[in-house]
Design a protein that fits this description.
- It is built from six helices and five strands, in the order αβαααβαβββα.
- The strands form two sheets. The chain has a three-stranded antiparallel sheet with strand order 3-5-4. Strands 1-2 form a two-stranded antiparallel sheet.
- Helix 2 packs across helix 4.
- The radius of gyration is 20 Å and the shape is extended.
Length: about 180
């Protein structure tokens, strides 16, 4: 028996409800901001332009307040996106590790030594500071339009930046545990 034509609409409604619940403060404005980003007719040139999208029914001041004061339950959002990943998509992720060097902050907590390609300390390609990591799932679908001509462009938001835990000695092992 074929699936009901309303099944995709019901699944979308459930997804949107769960997305809304993941916004723990300023949920209305954050939800409309998300819709404005997804429904924009072209590339988003700047954040204020999103307040001009028809689905963003609030003033541009609400846009800034929601970004400054809004909060997202990142665990809930991550679980929602993972649960709604389309079947058949390969599990391909992009990882970016960036170092925030703070060589003179000797008493800062959890400061470590990390690789840096262009800065050196005592002749070594390392700097003192913190290292953060972004992980984003990639899609191999061909995107269309003049502003979306790259293959493999991600349609998933990146996870919040994280640092490796003491139990994961390398970025590779930490990335693997973050994705699984």
């Amino acid at each position: 028996m074929p699936a009901s034509p309303t099944a995709p609409a019901a699944a979308l409604t459930c997804f949107r409800s769960a997305l809304y619940r993941s916004f723990t403060s300023w949920p209305d404005a954050l939800f409309e901001l998300t819709e404005a980003t997804l429904c924009a007719s072209g590339p988003v040139a700047s954040v204020p332009h999103l307040s001009l999208e028809p689905c963003f029914r609030r003033s541009h001041g609400s846009l800034y307040k929601s970004l400054a004061n809004g909060d997202i339950d990142t665990g809930m959002l991550r679980d929602l996106l993972a649960a709604n990943r389309p079947e058949g998509w390969p599990a391909v992720f992009a990882v970016d590790a960036s170092t925030w060097d703070r060589c003179d902050a000797e008493t800062s907590p959890e400061r470590g030594f990390y690789y840096h390609a262009s800065k050196h300390s005592n002749g070594q390609p390392i700097v003192a500071g913190w290292s953060y990591q972004w992980i984003s799932q990639l899609s191999w679908a061909q995107t269309r339009g003049p502003h979306r001509s790259m293959r493999g462009a991600s349609r998933w938001p990146p996870t919040p930046p994280t640092r490796p835990s003491p139990s994961s000695p390398t970025w590779s092992s930490y990335s693997a545990t973050t994705v699984t």
